[in-house]
Amino acid sequence: MAALVYLLCAAAALVCAALLWRGYRQSRQRLLFWSSLCFGLLTLDNLFLFADRILLPEVDLAVYRLPTGLAAVGVLLFGMIWRAKT
Amino acid sequence: MSGDFLRGAIAMGFAIAALFFLRYWRESRDRLFAWFALAFFVLALTRTLLVFAHEDHETAVLPYLVRLLAFLIFLGAILDKNLSAFRSPAGGRARPPSGATTSNAGSPPGYSAIAAPEDGRAPSEGRRHA
Lengths: 86, 130
Hints:
The structure holds 2 protein chains of 2 kinds.
Chain A lengths: L1 H26 L2 H26 L6 H24 L1
Helix pairs in contact in A: 1-2, 2-3
Chain B lengths: L1 H27 L2 H22 L2 H4 L3 H26 L1 H4 L32 H4 L2
Helix pairs in contact in B: 1-2, 2-4
């Protein structure tokens, strides 16, 4: 059950990233680029979660997982604030 | 301890992103932004709950079910935006003839609204489907 939830989280984030990336490729709107990057990193975050809890439970992958999540929200905020500034 | 610090920072970041989208929604009345704001608030909430959860609880699946709900809200919002853009006459103009030069001219259906203009303000209703 838990493994399925982790994988579904990763899959949903990946689809969001792909749709936003497609939008960026067609429109070149920068916020779409940052949003897509954010969801791509959230996909990675969820995959790390799956590996941490299911594949390698004896290894603590939080050291990779948490910075990835922080980077995800960081790039989105950077994109929003950068647009507000320019 | 540093793990809790990072979880708190992530939660705060999601909450700030939610407030940005809430502002975009207030200015544009585009429901895509409202759904994004809600989903980011949910993500902030789950990350906050994980800070206070004991290790036994952290391995429980409930917080991650809520996280999954947030991602499904994102996905639904994007798909809803695309579908509504295709259905409405204005959305049909999201792919303008070649040679159009407005900033949102090349936006694919459903994404012209998420891209705020360069001054950081959310696009107005009139501009969204330019």
